[in-house]
Specification:
By secondary structure, the chain is mainly beta. It is 6% helix and 44% strand.
């Protein structure tokens, strides 16, 4: 049983292990081109029925700018077990930034949203050689079915220039069972 524990309660090693923070990573770069179909990533969190988790995810990506090229960008969502709720808060590079093709060091517009697990979110690209990121916090409330919560991604607008989900420890999720 995860935190909170009560006076007089016997706490086992299993109790402590269930409550520790874990990490899942995207081990290698994953590319999608000329497709808006969501594909699963290596970022997959095992979940238990009836449990609640805190999840922090960093999605590192490279993509063409839809404002400059007319196609590209990033789209993502989560595939979760039936009956699971996953309210999220995201911060991503805005699709509405008219200056997104300029120097990244000057900054740009950021969009903050609060979608559900299956809501497909989108973020702008700047150039296929630039690294951008999305930051997401979520509470994962699993219903009656155990399984996995898997991050999925695609291009927002189909482009022959690939959208790249960056691996090698760049894209990752930290998660902790809290209940």
């Amino acid at each position: 049983m995860p935190w909170p524990w009560f006076a007089g309660q016997v706490i086992t090693a299993d109790d402590l292990n269930r409550s520790r923070t874990r990490q899942v990573v995207q081990a290698a770069n994953q590319e999608v081109e000329s497709s808006t179909t969501l594909v699963p990533t290596e970022v997959s969190i095992p979940v238990e029925a009836g449990a609640t988790y805190w999840v922090y995810t960093v999605i590192a990506y490279s993509a063409a700018s839809t404002q400059v090229t007319g196609a590209g960008g990033l789209r993502w969502s989560w595939d979760v077990p039936t009956g699971t709720a996953m309210p999220r808060v995201t911060a991503a590079y805005s699709l509405e930034d008219p200056d997104n093709d300029e120097d990244l060091n000057t900054g740009g517009n950021v969009i903050l949203r609060s979608p559900s697990a299956s809501t497909e979110m989108r973020a702008e690209g700047t150039h296929v050689d630039n690294f951008n990121s999305v930051h997401e916090n979520a509470i994962l409330q699993v219903g009656g079915a155990s399984g996995t919560a898997t991050l999925q991604f695609a291009q927002w607008s189909s482009s022959s220039t690939p959208t790249i989900l960056r691996g090698i420890l760049r894209t990752r999720s930290f998660y902790t069972r809290v209940q």
